[in-house]
Amino acid sequence: MDWRLNKLTIQNFKFFCEEFILPVDCKNILIYGENGSGKSSLYWSLYTILQSCLKPNASIASKYFDAEHPENLRNRFSDNSYSGIRIEFKHTDGRTKTFENSIYVTNTLGTSDNFMRFTAAASGFMNYKFLSSLFEFKNSEQNDVFPIFEKEIFPFLEFTKVHELIDGDTYNQTSTAEGWWRYIIRCHNNSTIIPHSSSKKSSVLENTHQYKQFKTLIEDFNGELMGRLREITHRVNDKLLKIFNLPISLSYHFIGADFNKIKHGTTKAKDGKIHRPKIILSAQLNHKVVKDTRAIYHPRSFFNEAKLTVVALAMRLAIYEMMISDMPDCAEMLIIDDLLVSLDMCNRIKVIDVILDYEKRDKQLIIMTHDRGLYNLIRNKVEENEIWKCYELYSKYEGYDNEEVPVPVIIEHSNYLEQAHKHIKSFDFPAAANSLRKECEAIMKRLLPENWLYSVNDDGTHQFLTLHGMISQGAKLNEYFQISLPFNNLDTYRERILNPFSHDDLKTPLYRGELISLLKDVEELQQVRVKDVILPSQIGYDSYHFEITTEKGIISADFTFLERFSVVVYHNTIYYANPDIKVTYCNLPSWSNRIGRLRRFLKDLSARAKIDYMTSYDNIIDPRKGISLVEIVTNLV
Hints:
The protein is of the alpha+beta class.
């Protein structure tokens, strides 16, 4: 992706009164915003300016900035007549493109290279409101999501061909679902395209060529939409199984669009009306021991909020992946606002990994949340990556009493270690200790596998371990990777420095030397990097082949990973994790169809081959890529 969002400027729109600039600088962006800080207004600003290129004319595109228009979204505190949004994209060669949607200017429409239209088509917007709407139906209602698709999905859903024109019409042809559907509605509303009887307004002349063309157009629309729905549900169910490990599948019942149906209660009279399609979603429970396998027509009354969110998210991601295929030169973004609010920690981690994986596909990510815990969880994953910027968004007030005006304040997140250095230089040692404590927590969250960071309460809920609990897991981490990291020192410092200085404890001596020693240990731990080799989506599915030649013949085996497989990089040395594996084939009976630890497996087979087991990682091959595990790791780090 050569084009990226570089800067967003907002003025007199929704929460933003005076000019507000989001300095993206072509990076991926993570934003924490407290409630009422303007976070969602950022989301809708991006949505509004990208959607503006799809409006039929500039007047409709600019209505949100027009004080006289009833649908305007101007800031109520502003007395500035200007209202608008400007967006700048930058190419890797330094070129820029700037677009504006405002009360005075709308230059997003009809650009010669269709840059904004392609960018809008290649960019996905995801928020909790969309996810919840997919199943927000009463038990007495059908789960018909066609209106949601029509509004949110159709503008970007490509069909395999452009629609045919009715004879005599010169309307612009398009291949999007929205373009097809709009054309069908337009033809229906235009009696010069679909001739009507002069004596009966609602009576359509069925013997005309245009009528037959129109009926064929509707049939083609239904066929194209059916094909896309089949692909969507296939992708959704694949994600539910492979990523989220849910025994749930999604299906749909499609009732196609129709025209000029026989009126109810008659045998011949027809209504001359267009009848909208229906996409009725249902679910299936695929659990091995489930007794009732009938379709679940009202998922909201059957599944909890977390499962519904996962199913909806799988659908939204499946649609996004279909929308972004084979796009021309444009910017490709994924913009997310509070997507994971109803998910438990286990599913949050899975979803975060799935979303962050889009970065590897050259998609620019903009993630916003009001959940501090979620923000820290993602930040710990991306902070070491130079392509990311982390911001915090707050609201302050100017004036007093009834003259207070909310003003957004955006702060780039600073590393806790940088803060500690500043506090030590200014002799504010308690503040330095507090910053180092936060940095220690951040390091442990980054280094430890996610499932090691939580304890399970009696009611089945999860909670973060304390710093002492996380440091205690360090011994387990050292053993898991066969490495020696200074976690014992951290626990000593925690007791002598970090705990007292985090509270009002005036009796504790000020150990400046120990504070500096702790800072050095923390700086050392900051050099440690953990890289995932096997992601959740690959666990239990991708097969690896092990083969080695010995004096007595070839030892051969196939296995899959049953846990996430990672490596630690420390002082230019690679340390391998020790996850569980399932050996699906081995010509040694002792390991055939057996579950065990990777290190034990390699040591056993290496001993039989009389080689150093550390070199045996070279003998593990990924059949899909045709390279060894060592080469995969080397390329990764």
